Amino acid sequence: MGIEKAEEGNKKRSVAARPRGLPLIGYLPFIGADLHISFTKLAKVYGPIYKLRLGTKLCVVLSSPDLIKEVVRDHDVTFANRDPTVAASVFSNGGTDNAFAPYGSNWRMLLKILARQMLSHANLDASYALRRHEVRKAIRVVCGKIGKPIDVGKVTFSTVVNATGSMVWGGMLDGEKGSDQSGGFRAVVSELMVLLAKPNVSDFFPVLARLDIQGVERKTKKVTRWIERIFYFKVDQRMKMDMDEGEGSGKGEGKDFLQFLLQLKEQEATGTSITLAQIKALLADIMSGGIDTTASTAEWVMAEIIRHPRVMMKVHEELTNVVGENNNVEEFHIPKLVYLRAILKGALRLYPVAPLLIPRCPNKSCTVGGYTIPEGTRILVNVWAMHRDPNVWDSPLEFRPERFLTHTTKLDYMGNVYEYLPFGSGRRICPGIALAQSLGGEAADVYVGYFIAFFRMEIA
Ligand code: HEM
């Protein structure tokens, strides 16, 4: 079954445009490794909605604000399911986490836990000193390297890992021997991201999945085990500490996110209990979905600032005015750092961390752009293409933060302006941003922009 123009009167209209592939394997041999780039080239030929067959899988690729709006707003519930690949299923333990869980009560419960607890105002406030400490440490590393090359990616990654670790379990990412694991973690997370995005024959020909021809399943199991070892170590350590301290030790006061999760695990009778597998999967979502995204965005921001001396001068001027020559940036400064926040938005436009979002899947047949999309189709929302489309953006390839200050509509991260969706949109929008909605839209800037702002001295 293909995607067909819905009936108008009694006549069916033309079948949606599609790149022709080969019998049986479809377009699979031609897609290349960077799917978003291949799909952007195809959109130039076939338009903002087209279908393509990859093995036995029917995919529909969308890249215009109007069509994307139909999926993420008008038919949000129909498209709220994910379509996890073999690698995603292995990593999420069959969708036990938030990112790959099927739409339903379980997903809703995990989202509530993540957004209302881990990312709550109280938790962010309580862990501010720990984040500050990690960022100061990063500044010292950078200052110690004046005149020498510096790996910005490495510094931001370990800063974000340790800052996130402090919010989640009150400390850095250390393993059984107490050593700093952030270096190893970076390599493992990078490998995981590649495995999650890699076209895998097993996904396109499920009958061949057990052969694991490219070894994606085996490799994903290996990196997942590595990550799980750290989580289980942390969980065991905490449970032991609680047992040793016993009653009246402060147990149950919800010191950090892990404490809160372990308390939930004990509340089996309340209906909101959580299993150990779900705890592990949620931690994995945060450590994988929240760290690489934030660190790589910070890296793109730094790269663009360095490539554009005019932007560097302007942000330096703003930091001097708002923060002062010899002060460090604090989180409370961020809402006033308007230009810096525009830089961040500009980097997320050109380099969205999830260029095809996370694929969705309709739970029933549905019409988009006049075409009928069958149940089970993989929907790829190509925000990369849309963010670089000359019909949507003036001089789209230019890094010009000012466009975010003068645009006619307010371009924020909330997913309501369909030209700009770095955090996705609708029910499956990134929960790191869902928090911002309840706090008036600025908190996400604070959370994401925080790490970048601290490089003020080096920018100077
Ligand atoms: C620069 C920072 C970040 C960016 C650009 C980003 C981007 C995204 C995007 C594009 C999606 C897919 C949304 C969709 O399909 O419509 C997503 C989903 C998700 N993100 Fe983020 N994210 C960031 C930070 C975070 C953080 C800090 C966390 C957690 C603490 C997080 C956790 C998640 C989870 C759990 C999902 C899956 C949500 C669901 O399926 O219901 N992300 N993110």
Question: Can you describe this structure in just a few lines?
Answer:
Helix content is 50%, strand content 8%. It has 460 residues and is an alpha+beta fold.
The neighbouring-strand order within the major sheet is 2-1-8-7
Rg calc: 23 Å
Topology pattern, helix = H, strand = E: EEHEEHEHHHHHHHHHHHHHEEEEHHHHH
Taken together, the total number of domains comes to: 1
- Helices and strands: which structural class? alpha+beta
Oligomer: single chain
The total of helices stands at 20
Q: What is the terminal separation in angstroms?
A: 59 Å
Per the principal axes of the C-alpha atoms, what is the gross shape?
globular
CATH superfamily: Cytochrome P450
Binding site for heme: 430
Pfam families: p450
InterPro entries: Cyt_P450 (IPR001128), Cyt_P450_CS (IPR017972), Cyt_P450_E_grp-I (IPR002401), Cyt_P450_sf (IPR036396)
Protein name: Cytochrome P450
Description:
With 460 residues, this protein is of the alpha+beta class. The chain has a single domain (4-454), classed as Cytochrome P450 (Cytochrome p450), CATH 1.10.630. The protein has 20 helices and nine strands. The protein has a four-stranded antiparallel sheet. Strands 3-4-9 form a three-stranded mixed sheet, covered by helices on one side. A two-stranded antiparallel ribbon has the order 5-6. Strand 3 (49-54) and strand 4 (57-62) form a beta hairpin. Helix 8 packs across helix 10 (216-245) and helix 13 crosses helix 14 (309-322). The longest helix has 30 residues, at 216-245. The radius of gyration is 23 Å and the shape is globular. Residues 7-15, 247-254, 434-444 and 446-460 have low confidence and may be disordered. Protoporphyrin IX containing FE is lined by residues 98-99, 111, 285-286, 289-290, 293-294, 297, 353-354, 357-358, 422-425, 428-432, 448. This is Cytochrome P450.
